[in-house]
Amino acid sequence: MKFFLCYTLLFFSANVFSQQLSGKVTYVVSMSPISDKKIDSLLSKRKTKNPEMNDWIKNMFKEIPDIKAYLEFTKKESIYYVEEKMKVEGSPKLNLNRISAGGDNKVYKNINTREYLQEYKRENLLIEKKEKKWKITQESKKIGEYLCFKAIDIESTNTKKKPIVWFAPSIPVSFEPLDFNGLPGLVIRVEMAGGRTLSASKIELNLKEKIEIKKPTTGKIISEKNFREYMNMLIESRMRKQ
What we know:
By secondary structure, the chain is an alpha+beta fold. It contains 6 helices and 14 strands. Helix 3 runs antiparallel to helix 4 (51-62).
């Protein structure tokens, strides 16, 4: 009861503040180093033995630099995107952190029109996303200057570790990085399987410069369910060709 009262007061006390709230959040996407033993174990399961390819994969897993992602929002819209690709000697460098953060695909949300779209540029698609279901716990901690509450993604199919999100009700916006949506407050930190994290390093609210959100319009709109079925079909088709 105490938790519910504290949480409710915290959320509703910010209602007036939220009416004109806008801002930009910078997130740092990180991944824990992968041991040589684990990399060798993964490579041993590959059907095709290619020393050059194995060396390339080893380097990719061992050198995973942090990347930045951004969430910009107004009172009705938001856009999430990842920083530009790093280039090495003129060629883009593959970064697992960048891939897990969304790569070149932006995520757009409009709370007035209830549009929630994620790009998938590789197949020229716009995926209609749905809100997640969460278990909001009583556990809380301060991250930076914000009191955050812990929520668990109960819909996740990951059997090793379901995503854990820390959100701040004192910033009462319905916008979020990637698809960690449906929580009553700004997402400050996400903890995922494999030691992957997405953490807010800078939060700028009500900036003097006007934030303009551009809605993605290129691509065929597809439901999340149909997208999963389509991707499964593509994977099966490619496996048959091998």
